[in-house]
Amino acid sequence: MQTIDQQMLTGERALFKRENLMVTNSIFADGESPLKESNDITINNSIFKWKYPLWYCNNIRVNRSTFLEMARSGIWYTHQIVISDSVIEAPKTFRRSSGIRLTHVDLSNAQETLWNCEDIHLHHVTAKGDYFGMNSANITIDDFRLAGNYAFDGAKDMEIRNAKIISKDAFWNCENVTVYDSLIIGEYLGWNSKNITFINCTIESNQGMCYMDRLVIANGTILNTDLAFEYSTIEVETKTSIDSVKNPISGKIKAKDIGEIIINDEEINAAYTRYELDKAGDRFVL
After folding, report:
1. Residue 134 resides in a domain
2. Is there a single domain that holds both residue 111 and residue 178?
3. Planar angle of CA 4, 9, 5, nearest 5 degrees
């Protein structure tokens, strides 16, 4: 394997179509697409300063490296890439790529990141930016922090554990998502999604979880959440009170209390939803 060590790499396509290469302690300075169409590349302790660094690549490993803000749209049409102990300041990273493994990575400007990708594993990742994870599939996430609206719109087949997500309109248009042991804060959570399960999660969401098909909340903590579950089929169990519930289609809600149940659509049959409330230790079934 050839090694490039402590080099300043400039100009467009500086290492175009390279294979079996190790790059260490180097700077990718001005010049677009330095590693375009490259395969079997290992990059250690290096810095990317310019656009489109890893397009149409295969079998890439990046360790202890930094993608600065102008390394935008950096990893597109690339497959089997592992990034660890690194910082990605650039937006729009990862598009139409697969086999993505990120471990101990900080995505400090994650706007429009991870779009239309599949086979994704994130561990100990932090991200900040809107439209994270749009239309991606086959995702596993553990120890995750995200601040940014419209997260995971259109995502499918996803499992999330130990996350803190602050995101308005998160999990819209999703399918087959399970979230464990996580905190989710944001208005209008989960609209137009199906087969969504929250287990041991804390949720705070104005008008959240509406237009959902087969929503499950198990051992949940629901805070400051009103007008919930409109036009949704649900199986909800929460240890706390729900501010208000509006026009659920069918299912069951087990809660400490519900401030208000609103049924104001003639097409909704209230009898299709069962309520179990535990007020000060006294159990009520409605």
Report:
1. no
2. no
3. 20
